[in-house]
Structures are given as structure tokens and as C-alpha cells.
């Protein structure tokens, strides 16, 4: 098992758009395994490569007992929106009601370069959108209305991990109502 450190809010890698994967090799398969191991250990519903400091368009997910990964995702989202609590392993312990499309179809590739399509609603759709946002340098707090975003930034500044030089903290699933993605 290769558990990696999860980068926290404030790390520039989280705001940098990731590069498309061009080579589907042993190194990529190791990255997918590291992402999966780290996500399951956290525990989280998803984890994107930038969250462990790797600027490639790769994420893993574990939702409703469905474990998987997607490389170079392209999303097709429903117009119907729902708000639900959302958290993030890079912003531990905090969750806010975040608007997301109710359903999503994500197309991309698996670690062997084979085409993959993920179709999901509610939590799976939310997870796919959240992780793809990470690949674009977007955090879930960017999706909040201005008042909620202000509250989120205040909570981040007050969080015990805020400003720590260490790149990670262990996420406690009991510290938030929302599922950390």
C-alpha cells in the first residue's frame, strides 16, 4: 500500500489545471493505485491526482460500493441542479451545501488506455464533478454563493490545520456531515 500525503487548501497545486495523460504505462498504474489507497485510507468518496501533488488528469472514486478511476474525463451534465452537503479531503472537517448537476455522464479512459463511461446520479454525479473540478484547479468552495463562500473562508482560516506547513492532516469522517470527496 502506498498512502500519499493529501495537499491542503492553500497549496498551489490545487489551483493549477492538470495536464492530460498521454502515456498509459506502469507509472500511471502506480499513480492510480496510490490514489486509490490514499482515498480509501482517508477515507473519502474521491481523490484527484493534484490532491497528492501530481498534475495529471486522473481521479479515483468509491461511491455506493463502486470503486473506480477515470483518466482525462469529459463531462456531460444534466441541467437539473441539487444542493447537498459537500466536503473535501483538501479542506478537512468542513462541509457546505454546494450546487451540482443531479446526473452526470463522464467519459475518459482507464489506466490501460481503454475507453470508460461512468453514468451516475446524486452522490456519484457529485463526486465526478468535484474530482473533475480538482483537475481544472477549481475547489468546491468556488461553487458556493458569495455569502456561503465568505463563511467557508472564515471556517478555513479558523480550522486547526489552517496555515500548517505540513502538507496533510488525517480526515475524520465524524467531523463533517458531508462526504469528503
From TrEMBL:
Keywords: Hydrolase, Iron, Metal-binding, Protein biosynthesis. GO terms for biological process: translation. CDD domains: Pep_deformylase. Binds 1 Fe(2+) ion. SUPFAM superfamilies: Peptide deformylase. The keyword Iron applies. The active site is at 131. Its cofactor is Fe(2+). It holds the Pfam family Pep_deformylase. One of its GO terms (molecular function) is peptide deformylase activity. It catalyses: N-terminal N-formyl-L-methionyl-[peptide] + H2O = N-terminal L-methionyl-[peptide] + formate. Removes the formyl group from the N-terminal Met of newly synthesized proteins. Requires at least a dipeptide for an efficient rate of reaction. N-terminal L-methionine is a prerequisite for activity but the enzyme has broad specificity at other positions. Belongs to the polypeptide deformylase family. HAMAP family: Pep_deformylase. This is Peptide deformylase. The lineage of its organism: Bacteria, Bacillati, Actinomycetota, Actinomycetes, Streptosporangiales.
Amino acid at each position: 500500500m502506498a498512502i500519499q500525503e493529501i495537499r491542503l487548501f492553500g497549496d498551489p497545486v490545487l489551483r493549477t489545471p492538470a495536464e492530460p495523460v498521454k502515456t498509459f504505462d506502469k507509472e500511471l498504474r502506480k499513480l492510480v493505485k496510490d490514489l486509490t489507497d490514499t482515498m480509501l485510507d482517508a477515507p473519502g468518496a474521491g481523490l484527484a491526482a493534484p490532491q497528492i501533488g501530481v498534475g495529471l488528469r486522473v481521479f479515483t472514486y468509491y461511491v455506493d460500493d463502486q470503486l473506480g478511476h477515470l483518466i482525462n474525463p469529459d463531462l456531460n451534465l444534466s441541467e437539473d441542479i441539487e444542493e447537498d452537503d459537500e466536503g473535501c479531503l483538501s479542506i478537512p472537517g468542513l462541509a457546505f451545501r454546494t450546487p451540482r448537476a443531479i446526473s452526470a455522464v463522464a467519459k475518459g479512459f482507464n489506466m490501460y488506455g481503454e475507453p470508460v463511461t461512468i453514468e451516475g446520479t446524486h452522490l456519484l454525479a457529485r463526486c465526478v464533478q468535484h474530482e473533475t473540478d480538482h483537475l481544472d484547479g477549481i475547489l468546491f468552495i468556488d461553487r458556493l454563493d458569495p455569502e456561503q463562500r465568505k463563511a467557508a473562508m472564515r471556517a478555513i482560516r479558523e480550522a486547526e490545520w489552517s496555515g500548517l506547513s505540513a502538507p496533510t492532516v488525517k480526515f475524520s469522517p465524524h467531523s463533517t456531515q458531508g462526504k469528503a470527496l
